[in-house]
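Hi V.,

Quick status before I head out on leave. The structure for the redesign project is tokenized and pasted below; the design run finished overnight.
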């Protein structure tokens, strides 16, 4: 099953964080405060932080 934009936007926070996943390895982590991170967003942020630490 695909992880759709609608599924991501309608995800609700719970007492514990949880993952929504699809068959292609994409996942979305939903935090208890309602914020969420996709695998791609985390990888982009980590890559950006690594580039900045090299230039510091």
């Amino acid at each position: 099953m695909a992880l759709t934009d609608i599924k991501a936007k309608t995800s609700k926070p719970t007492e514990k964080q949880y993952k929504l996943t699809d068959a292609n390895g994409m996942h979305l982590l939903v935090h208890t405060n309602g914020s969420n991170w996709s695998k791609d967003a985390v990888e982009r942020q980590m890559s950006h932080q690594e580039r900045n630490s090299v230039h510091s």
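Above is the designed sequence. The longest helix spans residues 39-55.

G. will cover questions while I'm gone.

Best,
W.
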